[in-house]
Amino acid sequence: MNASQEPDRAALFALRNRLLGPLRNRFLTTDQLCEAGRLMCGRPEGLSLYGIPAPEMEARGLRILGRTAVECTKDPHPATVAGAIAEIEATTPEADGEAMVVDLFCGSGNFGHHLGRRLRRPVYASELDPIVHEAGRRNLDRVGSAVDLRLADYRDLLDALPARSERDVYIVEPSWGPAFTPDGLDLTRTSPPVPEIIENIRRSRDCVPCLVVIETSDRVVHGSLEFSFGNAIHLRTLVPEPFPPHRTGSHFHLYRLGE
Ligand SMILES: C[S@@+](CC[C@H](N)C(=O)[O-])C[C@H]1O[C@@H](n2cnc3c(N)ncnc32)[C@H](O)[C@@H]1O
């Protein structure tokens, strides 16, 4: 990194601390959303959810919490993942039953929203935090989304949704918190830990296979990705172009959970 990038990097971390601290449960103003877009994604419009860029969010009735601006899966990543799933399915035999998308840690709901639309599937989602749930519900209504979002622990959603098809897709995006350090991301330390989530998905499906997608940082430590997925089959890892200021970016891993 050259010296001219240092101020932006310092500003990025200062912003993250504010969004996850004092602004955590506050709705961001247009100025704050644009600043978040510029520092996290290189330009104000780079921060986009439900297809709506930061400068237009407030005017179009979206209300984005500070924590959600940091934690959300930003456009265009869900569309990239949907494209990969469609490609995978094009090369595998048809499956019985109407497949669903299950967004277990919904947050903004942006991931499930796009996946459901692109794959033309019903989406069921859970969010445990009442403030995040309320904001997510409101925003999804605002953009005319059909996501069925419940204020619930992800395990209750799993209990309520037995397997429908071998093409069911589960989005696994728990909060990283202290699992994410400068060394990388340890998936055994997320909240809840990923190995536990995968085991609960498996159990809820009573041996019917499915597809799981998980987002990580570009560095996962302690072999925790392989450990979390055990004998599941790794299908693909997608590495979208990182947002300009970071030099690091999200990876999306697709796994088939078997019997
Ligand atoms: C990393 S964020 C998800 C981001 C999401 N993919 C998006 O695009 O906004 C994780 C979310 O999971 C929620 N959460 C944490 N524990 C949960 C649980 N046990 N069940 C359901 N939701 C939970 C948190 O409140 C947080 O909103």
TrEMBL record:
Gene3D superfamilies (alphabetical): Vaccinia Virus protein VP39
InterPro entries per record: SAM-dependent_MTases_sf
Domain of life assignment: Bacteria
Name used for this protein in its record: Uncharacterized protein
Organism: Streptomyces macrosporus
